[in-house]
Specification:
CATH architecture: 4-Layer Sandwich
Shape: globular
Oligomer: single chain
Strand order of the largest sheet: 4-3-2-6-5-1-11-12
CATH class: Alpha Beta
Strand content: 25-35%
Helix content: 25-40%
Order of helices and strands: EHHEEHEHHEEEEHHHEEEE
Distance between the termini: 24 Å
Radius of gyration: 17 Å
Number of helices: 8
CATH superfamily: (Glycosyl)asparaginase
Length: about 280
């Protein structure tokens, strides 16, 4: 059993050293909680549970604490992929929910498994997800003072390998901040979140770059075709150089290979594999 998570990049929202340390401590705590959960649950259940914990931590740009878009509203996107069933589900630009990854999980059993905007919100309400305002004072201040000099590249994600050898991946984001309403990030697409029986990947970074590089699905496909996770990742990230692509990934394979990489330091991540490791 293995579990790896990420919380975006350190540079997100003008992060200082104190906040960097807080993020590391939060990831340490959450990855341990997630691993304890994994001991008695499937990979699919675990990535939803762990990503929900990340969404509930306002240090990260997903769920509570998400960025505000150019029209003053917060819209959330999240996706889930079960490597065993090869089913992908997600929500795009859903408003006023606490845990978009849980709405994505609910959609996994439906024929229409990716919903956007008002349709996603109606679905959430019909299935018991109550109204929740994810805004925190910091995000409102940033929006009102237009802190355009900060880099907002925070996304959260989780990849799990359970005791039965099954993989799952989940990714959630609050967007990049000040974007045009309706913009779709990589997080609710197979470019940003993908898993099958061989590997699982969750991405963070600039959504448009990740989509252009088809990053998550490309890495998993290459592992399926025989590359190691490290080889597949490095080849895929190298292919982003012509457009200076900005991306970070975490990944696991069914064989137990673990890998993390980024094109522009520093992505924050944590791993539980007998001991906790947090990248600084």
């Amino acid at each position: 059993m293995k579990l790896i998570i990420h919380g975006g990049f350190f540079s997100e929202s003008g992060t200082n050293q104190e906040v960097k340390l807080a993020k590391q401590e939060a990831l340490d705590r959450i990855v341990q909680q997630g691993y304890d959960y994994l001991k008695t649950h499937t990979a699919n259940e675990t990535v939803v549970y762990t990503t929900s914990l990340l969404e509930d931590c306002d240090l990260f740009n997903a769920g509570t604490g998400s960025q505000i878009q150019s029209d003053g509203k917060i819209r959330l996107s999240a996706a889930l992929m079960d490597g065993q069933t090869l089913k992908f589900s997600g929500v795009i630009n859903v408003e006023d929910v606490q845990n978009p990854i849980q709405v994505a999980e609910k959609l996994l059993t439906y024929d229409d498994r990716v919903l956007s905007g008002n349709g996603a919100q109606v679905f959430a309400r019909e299935h018991g997800f109550a109204y929740f305002n994810p805004e925190i004072p910091q995000r409102r201040q940033e929006y009102e003072t237009k802190l355009n000099d900060s880099i907002r590249l925070g996304t959260v994600g989780c990849v799990a390998l359970d005791a039965d050898g099954n993989l799952a991946a989940a990714t959630s984001t609050g967007g990049k901040g000040y974007e045009i309403p309706g913009r779709v990030s990589d997080s609710p697409t197979v470019a940003g979140n993908y898993a099958n029986a061989f590997a699982g990947i969750s991405c963070t970074g600039v959504g448009e770059d990740i989509v252009s590089g088809a990053v998550a699905s490309k890495i998993v496909t290459r592992v399926t075709d025989g590359m190691t996770l490290a080889q597949a990742t490095e080849k895929t990230l190298t292919e982003m150089k012509p457009f200076d692509g900005f991306a970070g990934i975490i990944g696991l394979t069914a064989a137990g290979e673990i890998y993390h990489a980024d094109t522009h330091p520093y992505m924050v991540w944590a791993l539980y594999d007998e001991e906790v490791k947090v990248f600084n």
